[in-house]
Amino acid sequence: MIGVVIIGSGIAGLACARTLAAFGFAPVVLDKGRGIGGRVATRRVDAMQFDHGAQYVTAQNSSFATLLSELETDGALAKWPGEGDRPRYVGRPGMSALAKAFGVGLDIRQGVQVKGITKTDDGWALQLGDSVLKARRVVLTVPAPQVAGLIGADHQLVADLAPVRLASCLTLMAAVTGPVPFTRRLDQDDPLTWIALDNSKPNRPQGPELWVAQASHDFSERHLEQDALGIANAMLPLLCDRLGVTAERVTYAAAHRWRYARVTQALDQLFLTSADGTLHLGGDWCIGPRVEAAWQSGTAIANDILARL
């Protein structure tokens, strides 16, 4: 039987596992995807790459600020110069480098789909297709709307999640030859809320201009159920307009759908736990729409587990 199984290899899950490992424990992290980091992600296509999820990381918490500074010293992060009082850190050579740095030395098993978990006399049983994995403790760091599918809609913790709200976000990745009117732009009133020249970040491939555009909540909701090609076709004319170029200048375009991207209503506590302390729920949705929030939630869960042992 495994002592602690963490479902989800986003920043919350990695922070939890990293903290437990630092105290000599050997948690197992399960994730259904091929990569770790959740929305701290980088898409690579031939010689191109795009940070199509989180664009950068900042720190308000002193411990997290120290961690980011250490990762910069180690070469995993670099500062992306810009406005604001707090440094904006980006992964080197892509945002996924942050997750990879968090995951060093951890037992992370990718491509593992957990169908559900049930309570047993001595812990939990995780249904993995035709097999069952047993654990004394389970940590769920999946998006809040996915929790009910794992523990059952009638579980008390699902009711506790009722206030949480997450919004979708559509992302366009495009290679464009032509002028560069800006390197990044934030406009909450525009259907393309965020536009950034991805290779303006440090240690990025040079060559054609690689742009990332992220849509507003309203635009994302209207186009959410379109396929990737349909989303790209809806967003690309808007990007061309903002850049002042024609479609002929576009040499590559693709879209990605983040169904649970932005925390619009947080739980306002670091995590949830079952009455017996063997099941924890956490993620950025606990305290706010920041990478740092996911790290704080995962770290707090690990500390709670350690305090119970």
Structural account:
- By secondary structure, this protein is of the alpha+beta class.
- It has 2 domains: 2-36 and 103-164 and 267-308, FAD/NAD(P)-binding domain, CATH 3.50.50.60; 165-264, Polyamine Oxidase, Chain A, domain 2.
- The protein has 8 helices and 17 strands.
- It has helices spanning 11-22, 62-74, 96-102, 148-151, 156-160, 217-223, 228-243, 291-308, and strands spanning 2-7, 28-31, 43-45, 48-50, 77-79, 89-91, 107-110, 116-120, 123-128, 131-140, 165-176, 184-186, 192-197, 209-215, 250-265, 272-273, 279-281.
- Strand 8 (116-120) and strand 9 (123-128) form a beta hairpin.
- 44% of the residues are buried.
- Residues 86-306 form the Amine oxidase domain.
Number of helices: 8
Task: Give a quick account of the main beta sheet: strands, pairing sense, barrel closure.
Answer: 8 strands, mixed
N-to-C series of helices and strands? EHEEEHEEHEEEEHHEEEEHHEEEH
Which residues form runs of ≥5 with pLDDT under 50?
none
Number of domains: 2
Report helical residue fraction.
25-40%
The number of distinct β-strands equals 17
Which word captures the global form?
globular
Radius of gyration: 20 Å
First-to-last CA distance? 16 Å
CATH hierarchy class name of the largest domain: Alpha Beta
Domain Amine oxidase: 86-306
InterPro entries: Amino_oxidase, FAD/NAD-bd_sf
GO molecular function: oxidoreductase activity
Protein name: Amine oxidase domain-containing protein
